[in-house]
Amino acid sequence: MLRINIFNPIEKRFDKKSIISILALFFLSLILTFSIEFVHRLNIVDISLIATLSETFEWAATNNIHFLFNFFIVFSIMSLFSSLIGCVYVGFSLSGMLLIFLTIVNNYKILFRGDPLFPWDLMLKNESSNMLQYVTNRSDIIRLVIIFGSLIVFALLRFILPKLSFKIKYRAALFLLATLLIYSFVLKHSFLGIRIYRLNHIANRKWEQEQSYLENGFVLAFSLNVKDSIISAHRNYNKEYIKKIADNEIVNFDIPVNKTLKEQPNLIIIMNEAFWDPTVLENVKFSKDPIPFFRQLHQESTSGWLKSPEFGGGTSNIEFEVMTGNSMLFLPSGAMAFQQYLGQPVMSLASILRNEGYKSIGIHSYYGWFWNRIESYKNLGFDKFISLEYFTDLKYQGWHISDEIVTDMIIDKLEENEDPLFIYAVTMQNHGPYNSERYDRNTIQVEGELSDESKLILETFTQGLVDADKSLEKLINHLEISEEPTIVVFYGDHLPMLGQKYSVYTESGYVEHSDASTWSYEEALKMREVPVVIWSNYNRTREDIGTINTSFLGPYLLKYMNKDMPEYFKYLLRLSSTTPVLDRNYAKTPSGDVIGSENELFIRNLHNYEILQYDQLFGKNYLDKENEDRWILTYNPDYNKDINDIKITNVVLERNRVIIKGDKFVPSVYITVNGRNTTFKYKNPNTLELNLQELNLNTNGENKIQVGLMNSKGIILTKSNEYIIN
């Protein structure tokens, strides 16, 4: 009898053990993928297994493409381990230990820091590299031991159950496949990975990472960040080539330093949200000038225009460029430098001026966790960063803290400090969108060929400019009569997003089309140009600086202040003297000529800038190695120590009130009495008041009172001492 086995062709290519092992690899990868996402969505504080299981199933069903990509990556990692070791059991266990451990650490980092786990947390030499710091108590450790113990037991099944392994040739093929997949979907922006991600609408929400992790899944979201964290060295990067650039571009570039000024001038940089001059819009008329004071300063003081790397958002990237001299040109498109590349100390205006005896203060009228500013300012070398949580006056104008409050804080800090000050202040009042009425009334009317919606958008934006102009005038009037030499630099971070598809810009004729890819060079540049003014109360000399990259402003200011500077900043000064505007595809010379990618000067400047930035930001800092300790603050233990030092000095019972006396109180604090939150009235930075009748005090024992500060994500920033009353 003739027997036909339809599996013969397969068996000739693969032995049964290999087929079973491959099927097991798929099945176990599927289980591990689901398990990782289950752990990812598990509430650490209030564990509800059934609810989390349901949520995980729902996510996998509604986001099946995202789940599939998570599976591909897990399968690739598990295949890599299995092919190297030759056993599926062990490959599953090692993959599970690695990925589940990272997922658990991610959960704890969100709980304690408000941000998910990033690849750079693992790579950088700072406190974030200590993953175990987030696993804090005995129950956490027991949970990890149980999970890892289970995975180890699974690995030992290889000695009990039938072996799941591959022949050497299949292991080699599996290794190559796994390597290709990991390279394409995890490590690099390869053509294969980019194309597949785009086709399936997979994207990294860099500005909202916690949400990105929830939507994409932990493994996929983490891998999307891995792609952006890997910046490859230029093929010419080495010590000799850096020296060659220095010899050609810096050695003979003399920067005179004038030390005749006896006192060191304060430097106040105000980056006003979306500040721009809308009167340049064609075919639009305003009932009056929204920025008369700024316009006067722009005409009388040193001034010009800055080419911003962003439009309508990405504020922190402008901070990054101005303070470090580094350019977003050489980072991945859509990158957010503060979140991705400032995990360790870097050279900045703050660290450079600190060497000159300056105290550096960052101010921002929004939450410190946003764009990871509270950590980034530490690594930039600031003494403290005062974000919204620490503001003592919460006066709002429209939707956000008013510009005037920021001005008042700058004046207070100038009066409090005896040391020369460097302040970098970022406002929030005029942040978009502008398509609804946020003020009681708009004091400036707009006329022109605009739709009703576009008129409302432009008038709302313009009203914010009116307040910004008044705040600037208040600061300058104060400094005019001050005896302390002070420099004020005022500019916007980017042009405002005025309507969908650039509606205000197109309707007014400022640009011809809503498709940015069709803009001419002139249109593209003017959609990135913001006005800047540099005013001082001791130097009335005016200079027209033209248009320069925002990354060239820092070196220019050090020169303006007659300060010594690192070799890197000297190079940037030299660079800006030949190509003050430098972009990926073009540059402008001081005479205004536009040169393109075929021009030798353009090619050389872009090439050398990229290599020196890599050296300074990611490399070995060959250019400034000899004076590295002078220019980079590598140890900053007292950062924010001052503003976090909340103290209770006394508690007084008066009639039906409990008066708490102390220091560093702000309206955003919370108060616990015997561990329970209680309502209170904020009086001033030294006084808080509680209603005695609302408190459930222990009449026959101790009562513990504590004041703390928590951000909007529920992360505790600091706590006071416990004060005990009987």
Automatic annotation (TrEMBL):
Lineage top rank: taxon: Bacteria
Spans traversing the lipid bilayer: 20-39, 59-81, 88-108, 141-161, 173-192
UniProt membrane topology term: Multi-pass membrane protein
Keywords: Cell membrane, Membrane, Transferase, Transmembrane, Transmembrane helix
Cellular component GO terms, alphabetical: plasma membrane
Protein's pathway: Cell wall biogenesis; lipoteichoic acid biosynthesis
A Pfam short name: Sulfatase
Domain Sulfatase N-terminal: 265-562
Gene Ontology molecular function: any one: transferase activity
PANTHER family the UniProt entry points to: LIPOTEICHOIC ACID SYNTHASE, PHOSPHOGLYCEROL TRANSFERASE I
Subcellular localization: Cell membrane
Keyword flag Electron transport: no
Protein name: Phosphoglycerol transferase MdoB-like AlkP superfamily enzyme
